[in-house]
Hints:
By secondary structure, the protein is α/β, with parallel strands linked by helices. Helices cover 26% and strands 38% of the residues.
Amino acid sequence: MSAKYSFDLQSQERRRPLPAKLIIGQNETETIAHVALKLLAFVLFYRERLQIEARLHNDNIPFEPDMIQLDYQLQPKLWIECGECGVNKLHKLAVKVPEAEIWIVKRSLADARHLFAAMEKGELRRDRYGLIGFDATMFDEVCGLLQPRNEFTWVSGEFDPPQMQFDLNGLWFDAPFTVLRF
């Protein structure tokens, strides 16, 4: 682990009671953008039992998710990949975690569309994946604000229409994002 980022979280949205603190580790191979993607994915998808980089202890699933929610039988219900994710891995995930929602979170709409096109070319299963592309300018600004210790207040976020509002280290964001279904 090369760095840790701490977030004091608050939520003004009653349906999304975030934990008071979140720590995201940055591995040697990860960029600050990967940390920012994990943060935004965590608050956007937050639900009980959502874990960051949890080890599955399941020999049938050879992958480690960026984020996962397990059901009470310890089977994946939600699988989230942040940033780079190969088409072959996504194809195998659809088979290995058949009951799970699979989401891929990208820094920009262009990145999400590029992956979508690669998924089409690779002939992946349809109706299995969700892709999110953030506004690139907003995302770059979030990356620039990240410090070892951060204050984050979630105000609201919806998938229909795709929009989120939050405050990060004293700067207000009212940002749309794009959802693509594959």
